[in-house]
Design brief:
With about 170 residues, the protein is of the alpha+beta class. Helices cover about 30% and strands about 45% of the residues. Strand 6 and strand 7 form a beta hairpin. Helix 2 crosses helix 3. The longest helix is centred in the last third of the chain and has 35 residues.
């Protein structure tokens, strides 16, 4: 690949939740909740994070990897349909050099006993950078933390409800 090449790829991930689509959507919409689950890898922690969750709004994420690399993620929300869909575009840069740009669609659907989430990411890797398995794995790790966060929140809420009814 040349110094100005672009390589394109995509992937789709699905998750089933024991919670409504509205509850799962809320975990994307609330900045504090999103920060709890959205780091793409366990060794990555946000040094700076802000989010304006609305069409045309931005999300900014900055972190330092264990090897000292400065990671920047800049996102813009393109379309938001409450409890049903989020479409956003984002770019990633390491030490100030962009290495990928993506378009992501997240779809939420209620199902008997819970909901499903379908995430489709279309990527352009820039200038010879290509880490599809790492990107997919990082996204899977984030979705697994989302699943855990939503289920723990639901279970704690149910336990609190039971305790209040007993009191």
């Amino acid at each position: 690949m040349t110094a100005t090449s672009a390589a394109h790829t995509s992937f789709v991930l699905d998750r089933r939740f024991k919670a409504s689509a509205a509850r799962v959507f809320a975990a994307w919409a609330d900045p504090a909740t999103k920060l709890r689950w959205s780091d793409c890898h366990a060794e990555t922690n946000a040094a700076e994070f802000s989010m304006d969750f609305r069409p045309g709004g931005f999300e900014l994420y900055r972190s330092r990897l264990p090897d000292g690399t400065q990671l920047a993620v800049d996102k813009v929300f393109l379309d938001i349909v409450p409890n049903a869909r989020i479409v956003f575009a984002y770019s990633m840069a390491a030490n100030g050099k962009a290495f990928s740009a993506s378009l992501v669609t997240v779809e939420f659907s209620d199902t008997p006993g819970g909901s499903t989430l379908k995430l489709t990411e279309q990527l352009a890797y820039l200038d010879g950078h290509m880490d599809i398995e790492q990107r997919r794995r990082g996204t899977e790790e984030g979705l697994d933390r989302l699943l855990l966060d939503v289920h723990v929140t639901v279970e704690v809420g149910e336990l609190l409800g039971q305790l209040q009814r007993r009191a």
